[in-house]
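Quick start: what a row looks like.
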Amino acid sequence: MPDLAACMAESCTELFVFMSRLSRGTNILPHCGPTWKRVRIHLVVEAGSAAASRDDGRGGAALRIGGQELEWAKNGDVVVFDDSFEHEVV
């Protein structure tokens, strides 16, 4: 991550990297970040198979941001959004 290395070298204070793995069927309840100054970037590293469907019969996980639902369909998919909007994993 060259940009991360450059930021660290310049002693930036506004960078935070967190990685998590969601298991099949995981839901994250609706929530909002504390400020509009935070941008979230969600990257699909390993998409679930079509067989790993949700209770509603659709494919893998989806991210709802405000009133829009986005499917996490394939490896490499990226979603960037303002953390202050209500969002959840369904």
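That is the whole record. The longest strand covers residues 39-43. The two ends are 30 Å apart (CA to CA).
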